[in-house]
Design goal:
The chain is mainly alpha-helical. Among the domains are: 4-119 and 314-445 and 712-737, no CATH class; 739-781, no CATH class. It has helices at residues 4-46, 62-117, 119-143, 145-214, 222-234, 251-261, 265-277, 279-286, 288-311, 314-374, 386-432, 435-440, 453-459, 468-476, 481-484, 493-496, 499-511, 525-535, 544-551, 560-571, 578-619, 622-677, 682-732; strands at 55-56, 737-738, 753-756, 760-763. A hairpin with a 3-residue loop joins strand 3 and strand 4. Helix 4 runs antiparallel to helix 22 (622-677) and helix 10 runs parallel beside helix 23 (682-732). The longest helix is centred in the N-terminal third of the chain and has 70 residues, at 145-214. Keywords: Coiled coil, Glycoprotein, Membrane, Transmembrane, Transmembrane helix. The chain crosses the membrane at residues 18-47, 68-89, 345-371, 392-419, 706-726. Residues 175-216 form a coiled coil. One of its GO terms (molecular function) is actinin binding.
Amino acid sequence: DNKLPFLLFELQVVHYEIGLIVCAVLGLLFVILMPLVGCCFCMCRCCNHCGGEMHQRQKKNGPYLKKCFAISLLVICILISIGIIYGFVANHHLRTKIRRTQKLADSNLKDLRTFLNETPAKSPDKVSVLYTHVSEEMFSPASDIKLLLGDGIHTRLKPNVIPVLDDIKAMATAIKETKESLEKVNSSLEDLKSGSARLNTSLSNVKAELEDALNDPMCSEQMVTATCNDIRQSLGQLDININLDQLPPVHDQLNSVNQVLKTNLTDLVERGYKSFNDIPEMVQNQTKNIVSDVKRVLDSVGSNISNVTNQVPIQDTLSNFMGYINDTETSINHGLLTLEKYESYRWLGCLAVCCLLTLIVIFYYLGLLCGTCGYSKNATPTSRGCVSNTGGIFLMAGVGISFLFCWILMIIVALTFFIGGNVEKLVCEPYENRKLFQILDTPYLLNEEWQYYLSGLIFQKPDINLTFEKVYSDCKENKGIYTSLQLENRFNVSERLNIQEYTQDINNEFEHMNINLDNIVLLDDAGKQNLKDFGAVGLDQMNYTTYLVEVSKSLTKVNLVSFADKLVATANPLPPGNLKTSLNVQAQNIKRIHQQEVIPLEQSMSTLNQSIRALQRTSNGLMEKVSEIILSLDSAQAFIRYNISSVIIEESKAYVNTIIGYFEHYIQWVKDSITDKIAACKPVATALDSAVDVFLCSYIVDPLNLFWFGIGKATVFLLPALIFAVKLAKYYRRMDSEDVYDDLCVEFVSMKNMKNGNNGYHKDHLYGIQNPVMTSSPSQG
């Protein structure tokens, strides 16, 4: 099962190599056959065969064939030109990339040297310094025992304590408000009693004055008698409507409240608040030694971390690779010098190949251009112009060069194809999809005695599952060398930084912690007695109904203003005299009494009404409220006394867990720093990518594959190009003999030039009249 990827890769390689071999065989056939065919073709044409005879047989579809041959050759030449362009571009691209290789190698080697030399030496100290900084910042809130432990205890007790203290504080406020209400009641009663006496006197005086005025002789007159009698009967309404003597005084209640207020209940409650709110401060004062001891334990971790980080075998492991880096650098520099030396020869050779193909295709383009431009429909094959004949010569020149050199071009194409194709399929693509690493990780492949080559090389333990693919992936993600190379097999950081050892020390420190909160007093005995005394003042025994009924009455039996207005209205119809004047004067006196005496008394009655209602609200269930407050107070005090120990224990455990949680975070941070931060090996993966993916595949193989593709494409198309060029040349070159036709009959004229010793050439004309159909010429067209 472990060798399955290798077997699958072997099968793929076999299939691919079969395809390469088939292509190579085809190229070999091309190399062998093209020179042979060219030699035969040349010899055949020298013997006036294969189109070598300068005679063109005229056909009806001749113009059509000429166009087809010309268009086909033009299309093929365009395709060849594209291939040549690919060749030029690939050649230039390869030269440019090779010139950049030295800079690429220097950059990667510099990164690798920095990685090997500086990172391992500085990383342990860096971890220690960072741990000291981070531990100070993170332990600062953890060391605030007042906040974590003290506030925790305070918060646990708060629901049982604060509501009771709030009720006592509200009761202290109610006592003060009760005193104010009693004082207002007492003052209002005194004001009402004295004011009502004055009002009674004033109204009595007004009634006496009115009775004297009604004794006037004018009342004896018949028309006035009825008016006087009506006024005399209404005088009974000028009287007070309230009886304040039945309202009991509140001196006793006021004195009792004043006696209660001699004890400042508000101060006692504030002391209870302060005593309860001082719990965090008390906890902090009683645990100073604990905090310092815990800080000492955490500080000792820093030195242990320095020892552990210095013992991590990263430096030793990486030092083993320094020799490889030095040898690699020497090899690279020597190889690049050799590469640059021979690169110019390669470039010139590839340029010569591209220029040779360019020359061939230029001959074809010139042949097409001259032949097309110089061709005349009216000219017979023997009378074609010089330009057309030159076009045919250019085409034949291209054919000749193609036969001479195309087999050399195919050899170059086959070599570059075999090399570039194999490297692309066997190295570049497997490296890209990481199958190459899977092949290298095949057990016992690189070393028959080692299951895993990399672990055997580093640890001398070939049974450890350390693979090239895993190391490359980890370095690609910039993980530390500790994780990438699985250095825990040599030095296990988790065992050296065992958190249980340190947490046990912290637990031992807190086992000796002793917090005493027994002296918390919410309210002393004086405060309790004060509450009981207030409940016994007797506010609930007051007859509030009598007060409210009496103060809800009007001060007088009649509204004095209305009475005065009515009196004025009654007096106005009377004839002028003492009666009328007296009535008007008394009406004004009544209004004055209302303004000066009744209105102030009404305000006092309103104040009395509000004070009585406030006292009624306060006294409603007063004894029950006091009893409930005292009961809740005793319950809260008992809760503090009997449950404080369990609360302290629970909150102490929570605090210890918080400290240990911070500490676990510290230790985990250190482990992560050692395993993932120290000597992050991304430069190694980058260097490998630069060597394989960038230099070999991108700089060399990609341009090489583009070169053989372009040149191979152009070379393959030379074969149909020379065929069409030979066919087309017949239509452009000037012939030595031709077929002649007329409109009615077909005359076959065979003309041959025969060499004469004295007279040069002799033309022998043969004439024959046949049916008006085309006849075949005995000569080869």
